[in-house]
Amino acid sequence: MPRLVNHAQRRREILEVTWRLIATGGAEAATMREIARRAGYANGALARYFPNKEALIEAAYVYVSEQTDERTRAATVGKRGVAALRAFLVELVPSEEITVLEARIVLPFWSRTVTDDQLARTNDAQLQRWRDKLVVLIREGRADGDVRTTVADELIAEQLLAMALGLQILGLLPEHPSTPRLQLRLIDTFVAGLK
Fold first, then answer.
1. What gap in Å lies between CA 63 and CA 76, rounded to an integer?
2. For residue 62, what are the domain limits?
3. Which residues of 132-155 are buried (b: 16+ CB within 10 A; e: fewer)?
């Protein structure tokens, strides 16, 4: 009897290997051959799941984005408004090992969005989901009386998103990275300013 293959599980395993390989060695290190080797599959086996490296890199970005979204959901459970806003932002900045690795995926992906319309659309969709979530949390903060600034909710969300994305870059600088402690202080300072 032939062995049953869980294709969804195999795809996840390939994506896990891919994003970690990109995070530690860069996109150049993530060759189809190396990914297959680390995942324990024959080189040709990847083609069943991903037709080429570009498709695999996009899928790895989506996979990392989904992991980040899951962490932000978990971090905000039982929280509202400003408390949830802070918890959400902490999961976006590279202040822990997992978020540093994820930022190492996001940065090279962004450079590819400049010349690849499909990747740009994928990135835009993710950023819009984050904007929408930030606006919801800001509105909850207003309803709770914790957000009192007269700045429009959408503008605050854009400022917070710009700060989080900027901290992803600053947190990865090779010589003088923005420290996790500084990243958290910046988030706390901004959130406190909403009052």
1. 20
2. 53-193
3. ebbbbbbebbbeeebbeeeeebee
Q: Within a domain: residue 92?
A: yes
Q: Which tens digit of pLDDT belongs to each residue from 83-104? A: 999 999 999 999 999 999 999 8
Q: What is the CATH number of the domain that holds 68?
A: 1.10.357.10
Phi/psi of residue 186, each to 5°? -65, -45
Nearby residues of 179 by Cβ (< 8 Å), 6 or more positions away: none
Instruction: Indicate the DSSP class of residue 96.
Output: S
Q: Among the residues of the chain, which ranges form H helices? A: 7-25, 32-39, 53-76, 81-90, 97-113, 117-144, 153-170, 180-193
Tokens representing residue 177 in the block: 């990275």
140: left (phi over 0), alpha (psi -120 to 50) or beta: alpha
Domain assignment present for 106: yes
**What are the backbone dihedrals phi and psi of residue 179, each rounded to the nearest 5 degrees, phi first?**
-75, 155
* Total domains, the chain: 1
Per residue in 177-192, is it b (16+ CB within 10 Å) or e — as a string? bbebeebbebbeebbe
Residues 6+ apart with CB under 8 A from 147: 81, 82, 138, 141, 156, 194, 195
What would the pLDDT profile of 165-195 be if each residue is shown by its tens digit?
Answer: 999 999 999 888 899 999 999 999 999 999 8
